[in-house]
Amino acid sequence: MKKMFVLAAIGALAAGAMVGGATIAFAQGDVIKQRQENRKQAGAAMRAIKGIIDAKGPTSGAVAQAAKLKELELAFVNMFPAGSDTGDTKALPTVWSDRAGFVAASKAADVAYDQLASAAGSGDLAALTAAFAATGKSCGNCHNTYRAKSN
Ligand code: HEC
User: Which residue has its alpha carbon closest to ligand 1 atom 39?
Assistant: First the structure.
């Protein structure tokens, strides 16, 4: 009786693992799309800030965009589960082999977004312009090491 119960439990576990495996395989295609969509939104936020700078302000319009960049980044850094290194992705293997460096690059970007937000709130266009350039560098720093160049 006891033995039968154990066998049934093992059978249930095995079935569960199979379903789980299929779910994970499906989710990986999704997660690549999700993180690319996340970065598209980051690009859109940067373009919106560029538009504000070109229009010579008001800088306050960039406060929400800077907050959006931070929010996107906090989600983005966790969108690289094991196995999502293959498929239609530009993420380099270094994302997984040097996870600490990748996280550090993301954290550096977080700091840049915070500085961007306070520059936006300051009303000082020169400060916003400088913070925007620094933010662009933090995007590029991560791309240099962790994203394949587009040809
Ligand atoms: C911590 C690393 C990191 C930071 C910081 C970062 N990116 Fe990226 N970015 C990546 C990686 C990795 C990819 C490739 C994702 C993929 O193809 O799976 C990518 C892809 C992109 C793409 C292409 C998305 C697509 O359509 O496939 C754009 C646009 C982009 N990033 C913009 C930005 C901008 C703008 C910033 C700064 C505001 C930024 N990124 C900051 C790592 C980063």
Answer: 139
